[in-house]
Design a protein that fits this description.
Largest sheet: 2 strands, parallel
Strand content: under 5%
Distance between the termini: 70 Å
Helix content: 55-70%
Structural class: mainly alpha
Length: 171
């Protein structure tokens, strides 16, 4: 695999457009010319190119300018869901495959938006408290102090709920 293809596939994997188990996802800067060059070696890239143009054009550096040189690509992406485009092919890829890729990516982006956003909480901790949290993080096998605090809060909530249920049975 040539380096340009590898770079493009890494970015597309990072964006959840392709699955490539042998490459690590990376947020590389890519151009349309690099995408087209890589697609010659990996045709799946043609299948997701309309999805990129429709739903995440900012992923490709200088895409608006480059699409002026490739009006066929722009027009195909813009008419991807039009009914008159039933028999079209995109670089040999059936339009149904391109539609499926675009719909899947749109659903992924929509589900990503609906997930709970995190908020920043600033805490004042003593050096001892911070060291305790780091120790707990290492013992729990979690990545960060923030995750440790989340786990501690969940565990404390479970204990409180358990004690409340015990008290309700006793009373």
């Amino acid at each position: 695999m040539n380096p340009v293809t590898e770079k493009v596939i890494q970015r597309l994997t990072y964006e959840h457009l392709l699955i490539a188990a042998s490459l690590n996802p990376r947020r590389n800067r890519i151009t349309l010319d690099q995408i087209l060059e890589a697609a010659k070696e990996e045709p799946r890239i043609y299948q997701v190119l309309p999805a990129i143009i429709l739903y995440k054009p900012q992923m490709v550096k200088g895409l608006a300018k480059d699409l002026k040189r490739y009006p066929y690509i722009r027009d195909f992406a813009n008419s991807l869901f039009a009914t008159e485009a039933q028999k079209k092919k995109f670089f040999g890829i059936p339009i149904e495959d391109c539609r499926k890729g675009a719909q899947t990516y749109r659903k992924f982006l929509e589900s990503k938006k609906t997930k709970q956003k995190s908020r920043t909480l600033t805490l004042r901790l003593s050096a001892d408290d911070k060291e305790r949290l780091r120790f707990l993080a290492s013992q729990l096998g979690v990545r960060s102090v923030s995750e440790t605090i989340r786990l501690l809060a969940i565990e404390k909530e479970k204990n409180l709920n358990y004690h409340q249920r015990l008290l309700s049975f006793a009373g």
